[in-house]
Amino acid sequence: MGELREKKEKYQPMQIAEEEGKPESRFEALRSAMGASEIAMAAASWATCSISMTLLNKVAVGRSHAPIAVVIVQMLATVGMAAGSKNVHFGNGWRLWALAVPPLFALMMVTSMIALQYVTVGTFVVVRNLGPIVTLLIESVMHKPETLTFDWRSAGATGAIAVGVFIYEAKEIRFSEIRFSGVGLIFLIANLGSSCAERMMQRHLLAVREVDVSKPALMILNNGLGALFSLLVLIIASPQEMHSLYHALKFKRGTGISLVASCVVGCLISYAGLWLQRLVTATSFMVLGSFTKMIVIAYGIVMLGDSHGFVSVFGAVLSLAGSYAYSRIK
């Protein structure tokens, strides 16, 4: 019996090794590696576009003083580029998408531009970085994905992001100087809410309902209908912006270049965003958004001479650590 047991114990590791070497096991490992690589590529693409878009929008809006008009031009450029694709397919679910997502998309884009006219950039960043916490709580309660973990580690990681950015911004602009005008507060809340709702709605339709619509078609729906909603807002609230944009393009050097560049990046970010949201949860998407903001802040410290004291650097590192911790949990 002892010899038989010893032979069996020797055989088991060999059997496991043989099974691990089977084509099926190698195929599963390869597929898993390819999936992780795709997520990494999608995340890197979206993060690069997001950072570039922030900087280009700042230049374009600063030169033109026409935030809504700039958004409309960017959306129309995206529609034109997407329409030229050979893979424009409107299948099952496109009507539901058209009713649910473009209004939220337009609201998110317009309110983000307008809010920056009434509050400081630091205040805007602090409030927007509450997004991961909001989406984490809502996803956990309403339609919890299998890959979403809601525990003290997840809450701690997302909390670290918000607290870290708050510490940095409070030190940078001094807490006593943060100004919440009534109008600015309204647009900030609207932007935070519409941003979370838009990401969660897209995630739900892409990953849960699995609409049969190609990426170029989704871009056309988001930006085409979004441009119509934004145009309606412009006509009602700020009709003078079209003249301001025309004047800037004609008389202010560099306005056209910055606007065209922002349109190109806007097209790329729409595609990258849809690609990424097929692969990750809405909360993970918001966490990556927080991470890109920290990169912009780091760029300001290194290249533009922004605040680099111990407290500021601690806040930046804390937020980066929160993003890394959440990615490890996922």
From TrEMBL:
<feature type="transmembrane region" description="Helical">
    <location>
        <begin position="283"/>
        <end position="302"/>
    </location>
</feature>
<feature type="transmembrane region" description="Helical">
    <location>
        <begin position="66"/>
        <end position="84"/>
    </location>
</feature>
<feature type="compositionally biased region" description="Basic and acidic residues">
    <location>
        <begin position="1"/>
        <end position="11"/>
    </location>
</feature>
<feature type="transmembrane region" description="Helical">
    <location>
        <begin position="96"/>
        <end position="115"/>
    </location>
</feature>
<protein>
    <recommendedName>
        <fullName>Sugar phosphate transporter domain-containing protein</fullName>
    </recommendedName>
</protein>
<keyword id="KW-1133">Transmembrane helix</keyword>
<feature type="transmembrane region" description="Helical">
    <location>
        <begin position="218"/>
        <end position="237"/>
    </location>
</feature>
<keyword id="KW-0812">Transmembrane</keyword>
<keyword id="KW-0472">Membrane</keyword>
<feature type="transmembrane region" description="Helical">
    <location>
        <begin position="180"/>
        <end position="197"/>
    </location>
</feature>
<feature type="region of interest" description="Disordered">
    <location>
        <begin position="1"/>
        <end position="23"/>
    </location>
</feature>
<feature type="transmembrane region" description="Helical">
    <location>
        <begin position="308"/>
        <end position="326"/>
    </location>
</feature>
<dbReference type="GO" id="GO:0016020">
    <property type="term" value="C:membrane"/>
</dbReference>
<feature type="transmembrane region" description="Helical">
    <location>
        <begin position="121"/>
        <end position="138"/>
    </location>
</feature>
<dbReference type="InterPro" id="IPR050186">
    <property type="entry name" value="TPT_transporter"/>
</dbReference>
<feature type="transmembrane region" description="Helical">
    <location>
        <begin position="257"/>
        <end position="276"/>
    </location>
</feature>
